[in-house]
Design a protein that fits this description.
350 residues
């Protein structure tokens, strides 16, 4: 029989011989009625179960992912309104005068500064959504019922914690590349003053190596911190403790985390590929047709953001659970919790 949830049993043909099932817990009291089936998973099984979770609980995770998608779409609409108001398409068209081009670029820079709060708002919305997804996955893996509203209510009071984790993760990824970029442009600028083509070429080469090394270090830093939000949700940890916990669980497991995020990147590229023709057509259109295409592009972007973002959260949460099963016997802990919950309250009365 095909399992109802990814952790509530599995198909022997897909995963090999199935171990003995855990005894089922009674329905009610927020339980799904079937005991969770936790066991160590390979990287391929993690990816497979990520898609299985998403497919079987599609509306749950799509509802959770809709919140940051709405924020992103509203921000995009605001950017389009400002761009239209400042006549950027006209100023950036072929044949524009240099002063018009400079004014348009200045307007673009002003837009980025003006919409910095919108970017931060999206980051906060995504961080809360990631935490809500972690809560929902945690409930499902423990054999409990899960709902989008219930998961959001469980994490919303600690929104500052999830935002702090997201900011720390982002900063850990970008600071090495930023230092490499500073070294690159600084070296080129200093060597250019010496008016030596050879020195300029060597500075550019050295700076490029620094940028690449910084990028690799940034990716490694992000992979170390990728499990921080699931750890914070699952163990009620603060920002610093969540990041330390992530580094502990991710030690030696960065490859599987990278593959999980690579899957999400591929899905994002597919979603972006759908939008590219719309953008190209909208660039060459005018009037009502232009507005219609922009509206369609916004709708496609909203749907893509709503559908793709939860996949990364689910994968990271499953990796977190799997590492706890491997290292700490989390499956036994869950089974004991369910056994205690299943005992009637009268049994504890003297």
């Amino acid at each position: 029989m095909e399992p109802e949830d990814a952790y509530q049993g599995f198909s022997p043909s897909a995963y090999g011989a199935a171990p003995a099932y855990m005894p089922p817990a009674p329905a009610g009291a927020g339980m799904s009625g079937a005991a969770p089936q936790l066991r160590p998973l390979s990287t391929g099984e993690i990816l497979d179960r990520t898609l299985a979770f998403y497919r079987r609980r599609f509306w749950l995770f799509a509802s959770i992912g809709a919140v940051p998608a709405v924020v992103l779409t509203l921000s995009s609409i605001a950017r389009l309104i400002v761009a239209a108001y400042r006549h950027l398409p006209t100023a950036l068209s072929p044949g524009s005068r240099p002063d018009e081009l400079a004014g348009a670029m200045g307007s673009l820079m002003l837009m980025q500064v003006y919409f910095l709060p919108a970017t931060l708002l999206f980051l906060v919305a995504y961080a809360i959504s990631h935490a809500a997804t972690a809560d929902a996955v945690s409930r499902i893996t423990r054999g409990l019922t899960a709902g989008a509203g219930e998961s959001y209510r469980a994490v919303r009071s600690r929104w500052l914690r999830w935002s702090g984790i997201a900011l720390r993760q982002l900063w850990s990824a970008i600071w090495p590349t930023s230092i490499g970029a500073v070294l690159l442009f600084g070296g080129i600028a200093l060597s250019a003053r010496a008016r030596s083509p050879m020195l300029t070429a060597l500075a550019a080469l050295a700076g490029t190596i620094c940028v690449i090394a910084g990028g690799v270090l940034g990716i490694l830093n992000f992979l170390r911190n990728a499990l921080a939000t699931p750890a914070g949700v699952g163990e009620d940890l603060g920002v610093n403790a969540s990041l330390r916990r992530s580094k502990e669980l991710a030690a030696g497991r960065k490859g599987r985390i990278f593959l999980a995020l690579l899957l999400v990147y591929v899905l994002q590229m597919v979603a972006g590929g759908i939008q590219i023709p719309l953008v190209m057509i909208a660039t060459n259109s005018r009037g009502a047709e232009h507005l219609l295409l922009l509206a369609i592009e916004l709708v496609v972007g909203f749907v893509a953001a709503m559908l793709v973002a939860p996949v990364a959260s689910i994968a990271l949460c499953l990796i977190y659970v799997d590492e706890r099963v491997r290292r700490e016997g989390y499956d036994i802990e869950v089974l004991m919790q369910r056994s205690l919950t299943a005992v009637p309250a009268e049994s504890f009365e003297a």
